[in-house]
Amino acid sequence: MNETGVAHEVIVWAENGRTDLISCALDAMSGVEVLGIGGPSKSNMTALAEKYGATPDDDLRKMQVDQPAESLLLATSKGVSRDALNVARENGTMVLALEPLETTLDLFEGDEGEDEDGESGVGMILIPWMRMSPAWVAAADPQEVLGEVRSANVQMMGRAGDVSLHGHLRNGLDLLLSVFGFPDTIDAALASDQIQLPEKLSEMEGVMTANLRFGGEGSACLQVSDRGAVWSRRVTLMGTTGQLECDDEGYRLFNGEGELVDESVISEETMGAGELVARQWEHLINRSNGPAAMDGKQLDACCQTALLSCRTFELESPQTMLRMYGG
């Protein structure tokens, strides 16, 4: 419910492979009214739309004009146009995305998470967002114990139909940029059953590994996959005076002597993508804010640099890619 006690109105834009995740998220939420469910192929959305009493549609812009909603969940980037996103902005709709756009620079004005005036709920928020994971949020400001963070290991993976490889990649890079800042170099490789390396980030499948170097002594290893057996997201930060281990279900913070300084168990059971989407969506509805957004241009540049490195088999510079974006 919103502050007036009225149901929060939502529109969902999806494709067939994510209907289970969407059902899981919507069923786990309270006080939500589904105004519309659509997708590039509305025939694939018929069953999901009927479940929530909506009429399937294949025109995202028209759906928003006919029934303006407080939230729009983009579970696919297909069929998402500049006009449709501008309608969302004009309506003041909070846009949540399971699937990143190929480049936010081409289609959407403003960075993810916050608008230029700092008002959350107008920009686009990638969920489930690791920096909004219950355990990551609970591990508030561990910097005093960690000291200067020198190294990170980040793993983000799920099954096909959860989050795309591009989504995991962007999410992992978002976290690393929040810890270290903009990387100097990225060296990435893609292991996939695809015959040819795709030209677009949205077409990537398989497992990507990437090594990143940051100014000074900072470095990170990133492993992301949309072909995992189970949903799993884990982060290890190594500082000069401590270590943080975090996943979606909890965290542990150690000092330099190996003593457990702090810990929290958020859930005894593994939380899947649907439950995490529901938790974060409800948080945004009730509080209307999230962590400070990273620079959208920098995130786009890093994602494109990782794909370029997979193609060239070479270490590549995100700064060079950023200049191509005019950053």
Question: From the alpha-carbon coordinates, what is the Rg to the nearest angstrom?
Answer: 19 Å
Shape: globular
**SSE string, helices as H and strands as E:** EHEHEHEHEHEHHEHEEEEEEEHHH
Order of strands across the main sheet: 8-9-10-7-11-12-13-14
Tally of strands: 14
Distance between the termini: 40 Å
**Percent of residues in helices:** 25-40%
Proportion of residues in β-strands: 25-35%
Helical element count? 11
Overall residue-averaged pLDDT value: 88
How is the biggest beta sheet arranged? 8 strands, mixed
Which structural class do the helices and strands define? alpha/beta
Low confidence ranges: 104-122
Characterise the protein shown here.
This protein is an alpha/beta fold. It is built from 11 helices and 14 strands. The protein has helices at 19-28, 46-51, 60-66, 82-91, 104-107, 134-138, 143-146, 165-180, 273-287, 296-312, 318-324, and strands at 8-13, 32-38, 56-57, 71-74, 94-97, 124-126, 149-157, 185-191, 207-213, 219-225, 232-239, 242-247, 250-255, 260-265. The strands form 2 sheets. The protein has an 8-stranded mixed beta sheet with strand order 8-9-10-7-11-12-13-14. α1 packs across α9 (273-287), α3 packs parallel to α4 (82-91) and α8 (165-180) packs across α10 (296-312). It is globular, with a radius of gyration of 19 Å.
